[in-house]
Design goal:
The complex is a heterodimer of chains A (about 120) and B (about 120). With about 120 residues, chain A is mainly beta. Chain A contains no helices and 12 strands. The radius of gyration of chain A is 14 Å and the shape is globular. The N and C termini of chain A lie far apart (about 40 Å). By secondary structure, chain B is mainly β. The chains are: A mainly beta (about 120), B mainly beta (about 120). At the A-B interface, strand 5, strand 6, strand 10 and strand 11 of A face strand 4, strand 5, strand 9 and strand 10 of B.
């Protein structure tokens, strides 16, 4: 089956620190990969995506590179801010898929950034 | 258009009662999804619609759960004879399926269900 494994949290960093959240996946086909972010009291928001191997998704200073050889999609940011405090979810979707276009999510990583 | 909306945002019910949630997708989106998220976990897929047709249901969707999208616009998710294990956040998402794909799903704020 398809699955996503994220590094366990919570992660606590000081402002301006470097962030890495690890994500690895297993999939029976050729997935597209996503990072979603969930701020307190809000719904999931798409942060970035990559649809094929070696693609780099980027948004708001966050980056992640689709590594097929290591089946990974690690999230990075060079300098985090207090406003980045949230829960981050790695996810995949199989493309093409003969069945549901369902996202498969990891369990999430809680990030807290201290001033 | 302000995105996907869900109603209610919170629902507290007693075990054995029926509950119904509503989701209004982004207006031009033809696909609609329901997910369930329990505390400390990522969302898990329940079911999805393309227009008014329900095309896939997860094994998580027991026979106490039913979802509809009667006119291909809003959707409802009903849980009959609620159990404490149904307590979770129920998320709705929508997407636009095109010839090249439909991979971006936009999520609503969710309905938090508490079964006492």
């Amino acid at each position: 089956g398809n699955s996503v494994t994220q590094m366990e949290g919570p992660v606590t960093l000081s402002e301006e620190a470097f962030l890495t959240i690890n994500c690895t996946y297993t999939a029976t086909g050729y997935p597209s990969l996503f990072w979603y972010v969930q701020y307190p009291g809000e719904g999931l928001q798409l942060l970035l995506k990559a649809t094929k191997a070696d693609d780099k998704g980027s948004n708001k200073g966050f980056e992640a590179t689709y590594r097929k050889e290591t089946t990974s999609f690690h999230l990075e940011k060079g300098s985090v801010q207090v406003s980045d405090s949230a829960v981050y979810f790695c996810a995949l979707i199989l493309v093409p898929s003969g069945s549901a276009r369902q996202l498969t999510f990891g369990s999430g990583t809680q990030l807290t950034v201290l001033p | 258009d302000t995105g996907v909306s869900q109603d209610p945002r919170h629902k507290i019910t007693k075990r054995g009662q029926n509950v119904t949630f509503r989701c209004d997708p982004i207006s031009e989106h033809n696909r609609l999804y329901w997910y369930r998220q329990t505390l400390g976990q990522g969302p898990e897929f329940l079911t999805y619609f393309q227009n008014e047709a329900q095309l896939e249901k997860s094994r998580l969707l027991s026979d106490r759960f039913s979802a509809e999208r009667p006119k291909g616009s809003f959707s409802t998710l009903e849980i009959q004879r609620t159990e404490q294990g149904d307590s979770a956040m129920y998320l709705c998402a929508s997407s636009l399926a095109t010839g090249t794909g439909d991979y971006e799903q936009y999520f609503g704020p969710g309905t938090r269900l508490t079964v006492t």
